[in-house]
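Escalated from tier 1: flavin-adenine dinucleotide holo job.
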Amino acid sequence: MADADLRQYGRWRTGGRARLVVEPGSVGGVRATLAYLAGTDLPRLVVGDGSNILFDDRGFDGVLVRIGPRLSALRLNAPYVTAEAGIWVPRFVRLLGQRGLKGLEHAIGIPGTLGGLVMMNGGSRRQGVGSSTVEVRGCDMNGVPFARSQADCAFRYRGSTLQDDGLIVLEADFRFETAEPGPMRRDMISIMVERRRKFPKSQPNCGSVFLSDPRMYKVVGPPGAAIERAGLKGRRIGGAQSSPLHANFIVNLGDARSADILSLIHLIRTTVHDQTGFWMDAEVRHIAPNGTVRPAHEAAAEHALLTA
Ligand SMILES: Cc1cc2nc3c(=O)[nH]c(=O)nc-3n(C[C@H](O)[C@H](O)[C@H](O)COP(=O)(O)OP(=O)(O)OC[C@H]3O[C@@H](n4cnc5c(N)ncnc54)[C@H](O)[C@@H]3O)c2cc1C
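Tier 2 regenerated the structure:
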């Protein structure tokens, strides 16, 4: 789609327009698209469900390659599973549960694609998808294919070498435990109930904005507690608000601009630093109009300088 409204592609529902959005229907199609774009001077960017990105109000002057439901094939050979990157994580986890394949229940409430989850070793309850991952296949931004074993991916807390090297995940092999589906289903329901109680659901958001840092955790606690202690829970800038339900979530009250979200991120980060001495880094990534992707706190600091 040409001249696409980015609000459809990011879960904060903010941002300007993209020159073009394409959604290839096969692994080969993604590689061919990226290889073609590498020969042009257009910026290119691969996204999944947009549950961890902040588009810019000025838009994205390039081609957004979306990996979504068109790329969600699965092959099961218990306890091994091969899945394409576009499958929606809650759907994948439910399918595993129905077949008694255990290990990814912690991710049941994460509303993104499997590719985005694998790239940053996402998960919850201090777990990550990397521990069940056997091999990841994909390509670089020029469409050149790669395959990396679990060891080569070097999964760490919310990161991996896939992320460090800017690689695109197209499919992955996993190995799970086998278990009774009944108790697994009950576990997943209790995780969902807890998440619904703790996290805002109806207002657009991108989950936790700031990463937990083990050193800070020991002294101050998790980011949500630090933000609350800094008196910023519920704080609003324009249409963006630190959620009264969970301070580390920033919600769009309806008319937020990305600039409001950036201003709030900067206010929270600098205030918590003044009070605790710790800098919190953002998990959420900002997409600049030229396609530069960086942690949102970096874009927020620049935005604060430019608007001071
Ligand atoms: C309500 C809510 C709750 C959340 N809870 C959690 C949680 O408990 N734990 C957690 O870890 N995360 C959580 N998240 C964040 C988010 O859902 C995950 O990080 C998710 O894995 C991102 O996937 P995505 O497809 O939405 O990626 P996007 O937001 O589309 O992209 C995020 C980054 O990944 C890159 N990317 C996307 N797809 C690929 C791919 N196939 N290959 C390589 N790079 C790619 C993009 O370029 C971008 O830099 C939550 C988000 C929300 C909205």
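The chain has three domains: 2-67, 70-183, 202-307.
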